[in-house]
Amino acid sequence: MSSEQTTIPLPLREGLRSHWSERRLKTPASVLLSGSLILLLGSAFVSGLNFLFNVIMARLLGPALFSQAAAIVTLLMLLSCISLSFQLVCAKFVARNDSPPAKLSVYRSMSRQAWQVGVAVALLLVIAQKPISAYLRMPNAWVIAVLAIAMAFYNQLGVKRGNMQGWCRFGSLSRNYIFEAASKLAIAIVLVELGYGIFGVVGALSASIIAATLLPGARKVPEDEVAEIGPVGDCIPASFGEGMQAIVFFIGQVIINNVDIILVKHFFASELAGLYAAVALVGRLLYFASWQVVSAMFPVSAASSEEEPRKAHVLGVPLAIVLLMCIGFILVLAVFPGFVMHLVFGEGFHSAESLLSLYAISTALYAVAMVLITYEMSRKIANTGWLQLLFSGAIVLAIYMFHSDLRQVIMVQIWLKVLMLLVVSLPFLRSLQSLRWKEAA
Predict the structure, then answer these.
(1) Is the separation of the CB atoms in 282 and 344 below 8 Å?
(2) Of the listed ranges 114-123, 232-241, 354-363, 383-392, the one predicted with least confidence
(3) Distances (CA, A) of 228 to 168, 292, 409
(4) Conformation bin of residue 371: beta by default, left when phi > 0, alpha when psi is -120 to 50
(5) Which listed residue, 111, 134, 194, 418, has the most CB atoms within 10 A of its CB?
(6) Among positive and negative, which fits the CA dihedral 297, 389, 329, 269?
């Protein structure tokens, strides 16, 4: 490449840099609304595919075998705390850096770390496959080894998605989620119909993660513009503290959203565990939809100036969207529980109808708290992640103590989530009160 091509006049260099900053910060409200809409529409499609996956697996396997499949899926979601941590930190620091070269530097650094951690987690799963399968009452320990294959790639998938999220490329991010869900569904149907049973389900999970990781997506950085701009400004690298905060947050999150299924599988007979897994499957649709709104909010809030969060749209828009979704979801399940269970799962699951609205309330409480917690995390290293982790431990302890029936398992979660929502709301209530006093003065 000639010197004429590589030497860019300073005014043009600054103009290009300004272009990328304005593209990210020009209209945060419109980015929030459009990003939320794109991810919500994509989430609706992904949730539909995942829902169809679980429904077809429930019908093909029956309640007993479906409880085993649900336990494996839940184990994967528990392990996803590491992948989601990589995604969150990558999104935050890709968004915070102004220049494309700095964004690319963050992506490459985290990508190397993701492969290293992924291989280590996979090896640990293989080593611990027998005690894990024994606790979950799995008939064959090798299903854990099949799942371990996916874990070698899962963290890299998180970095890839975090890069898209940090660039606010919500369309590409949504397409990647859709591809993973669609490939999982197609592969699972083929393998289960061929007679592979639970191995077919786990094989489909692993194959879909690997496929989504290898799927070509949107270009990480426009390479021609990177070459033109060059090393503009200092790169803000992902810090150890941010990584720890993300890990703590996602450990708490996956425990709160998934440990009940694991414990019910441990304490109850397979038939009852299958019924509970079906109820949880419906309830978690609300959680996944809420998370898409949070995903749109996070990079916008992380990239905004210190004064920007005072504007209502940064927190108010996603909070209002999540609240409306929660109210509508609870009302539908409270009014039509029998219709929903019969339509989706058939007659074999009708006895779980009374649990649907209760589980939806439990999920809604956490969804609202999640918006507040992630907003704080987007701005700084906050203590709310540790608070969430504390409540997740309390939920585990409470279910161990109170599990006389499935309804009691849900009720103890509801009361603890009410308390958690009140506690995480206190900083925002104090901030609002302080702001009113300043405006009055």
Answers:
(1) yes
(2) 232-241
(3) 22, 34, 59
(4) alpha
(5) 111
(6) positive
What are the tens digits of pLDDT across the range 15-26? 444 444 444 444
* DSSP designation for 221: S
Strands (E), 168-239: none
Pairwise CA distance, residues 200 & 156, whole Å:
24
Answer whether residue 164 is part of any domain: yes
- Classify residue 5: in a domain, yes or no: no
**CA gap 36, 30 in Å, rounded:** 10
Closest CA to 275 of 196, 199, 214, 354: 354
Cα–Cα distance, 44 to 292 (Å, whole number): 10
Residue 101 Cα distances to 20, 82, 107, 277, angstroms: 11, 26, 10, 45
The DSSP-derived string for 274-303 is HHHHHHHHHHHHHHHHHHHHHHHHHHHHHH
Q: What is the pLDDT of residue 22?
A: 45
How far lies 373's CA from each of 403, 428, 436, in Å?
29, 10, 22
Q: Quote the CA–CA distance of 381 and 344 in Å, as a whole number.
A: 42
Give residue 385's domain range: 10-434
Return the structure tokens found at 415. Answer: 């009361």
DSSP symbol at 238 = P
Please check whether residue 338 lies inside any domain of the structure: yes
Tell me which amino acid residue 155 is: N
Q: Tokens 């690997």 correspond to what residue?
A: 210
Instruction: Report the number of distinct structural domains present in the chain.
Output: 1
Residues 66-82: pLDDT tens digits? 777 878 887 887 788 78
Helix (H) or strand (E) run with residue 149 in it: helix 142-166
Fill in the DSSP letter of residue 399.
Answer: H
Is position 405 within any domain?
yes
Who contacts 90 (Cβ-Cβ below 8 Å, separation ≥6)? 106, 107, 110, 158, 159, 162, 163, 165, 166, 238
Residue 411 tokens, joined: 């009720």
More confident of the two residues 244 and 322 = 322
Sign of CA dihedral 398, 403, 406, 408: negative
Lowest mean pLDDT, pick from 217-231, 254-268, 273-287, 358-372: 217-231
φ, ψ (nearest 5 deg) of residue 243: -65, -40
* Alpha carbons 333 and 353: distance in angstroms, whole number: 9
pLDDT tens digits, one per residue of 396-421:
999 999 988 899 999 999 999 999 99
Residues comprising the chain, all counted: 441
Does the pTM surpass 0.70? The reply is no
